[in-house]
Amino acid sequence: MTNFEEFLAEQMQDDEFRKEYEELEPHFVIVQAIINAYNAGMTKERLVAKMGISEKYISQLENANANPSVKTLKKLATAMGKTLKISFV
Fold it and tell me: pLDDT by residue (tens digit) across 6-52?
């Protein structure tokens, strides 16, 4: 277990923290997917071109400052060579 995982497990004991974290979790998933794409050699410019959206909007996604539609998430997945899977747990 990493230091971050230990820290997060400790913080998740706080009900208010856990509630906020769970509300932001979908944004974390999007940000991680973009980071993974960049680590695999995708550039922001290429991602923008493949999605047909502005660089500013990609930046908003990277910073969890956007609420993308399902259509946009599908474009993001396709641009990264992935498929979008949404599940309700």
Answer: 999 999 999 999 999 999 999 999 999 999 999 999 999 999 999 99
The tokens 């993308």 sit on which residue? Answer: 68
Number of C-beta neighbours around residue 47 at 10 A: 20
Tokens, residue 63:
């910073």
- The pLDDT value given to residue 89: 84
CA 29-80-72 angle, 5° bins: 65
d(CA 48, CA 85): 21
**Whether residue 1 has pLDDT greater than 80:** no
Contacts of 71-77 spanning 24+ positions with Cβ under 8 A: 73/30, 75/51, 76/30, 76/33, 76/34, 76/47, 76/51, 77/33
